[in-house]
Amino acid sequence: MIKRLAMAALITTLGSQLSACNATQQPVPHPKGYETYINPGDTFKHTQLTNIDGQPVVLTQGKKLVILFATWCSDSQRTLNELKASALLSDPTLQIIAIGREEDADTLKAFRASFGIDFQLVADPDRAIYQHYANKGIPRLIMLDEHNRVVNTLIGEQPGVVDQVHWQ
Fold first, then answer.
1. Which of 9, 137, 142, 164 suits a disulfide with 66, CB 3.0-4.6 Å?
2. What's residue 31's pLDDT?
3. Cα–Cα distance for residue pair 97/100, rounded to 1 Å
4. Cα dihedral angle (36, 93, 98, 53), rounded to 10 degrees?
5. Beta strand 56-58 with 48-50: parallel, antiparallel or unpaired?
6. What is the mean pLDDT of the chain?
7. Of the candidates 67, 79, 77, the residue with the CA atom closest to the CA atom of residue 143
8. Are 69 and 100 contacting, i.e. CB atoms less than 8 angstroms apart?
């Protein structure tokens, strides 16, 4: 009887793994435990934010690049430097919004001045924005289409991540 129950449990487990409902390939876990809560095709949850100068930032028509970063993070600094050196900044059809995770407006204003940033900065001091998109890991780059749907997401821990920013 016990043997038969064990066999039935094994068959049920294997069957559920092979059924069409579970045939979707699960993402490979990141070695550092990073999770991304938004995937290609999903709609970005925020359509309007407030920048560090108190002005509304509306995610308008056209493509958007949202960067989740921190001023103290060397990977974030490198990615922002790569962005500043790229052709993306001169693309008139691209809206760039950088969201400072666990950063306040005053810190971001000082960072903007010292780092020479001329795109929108948004403070996220308590991770109220960040928590919708990931559990940890910065910088995060989220490419959005003209309908604010995610085209791709990248974690920018390695040099050259800006070269991977594409909308096709």
1. 142
2. 58
3. 10
4. -140
5. antiparallel
6. 83
7. 67
8. yes
CB 137 within 8 A of CB 73: no
Give burial (CB, 10 Å; 0-12/13-18/19+) of 155: buried
Strand partners, 140: 68, 155
> How far is it, in rounded angstroms, from Cα 128 to Cα 109?
19
**Model-level pTM?**
0.79
C-beta separation of 107 from 140 below 8 A: no
- For residue 41, the one-letter residue type is G
- Per the listing, tokens 């910088």 go with 139
Cβ neighbours of 80 (radius 10 Å): 23
Tokens of 168: 């096709």
Cβ–Cβ under 8 Å, residues 121 and 106: no
Q: How many degrees, rounded to 5, is the angle at CA 54 between CA 48 and CA 57? A: 25
The pLDDT of residue 42? 93
- The residue with greater pLDDT, 16 or 140, is 140
Per-residue confidence (pLDDT) for residue 24, from 0 to 100? 32
Residue corresponding to tokens 């979707």: 24
d(CA 135, CA 122): 19
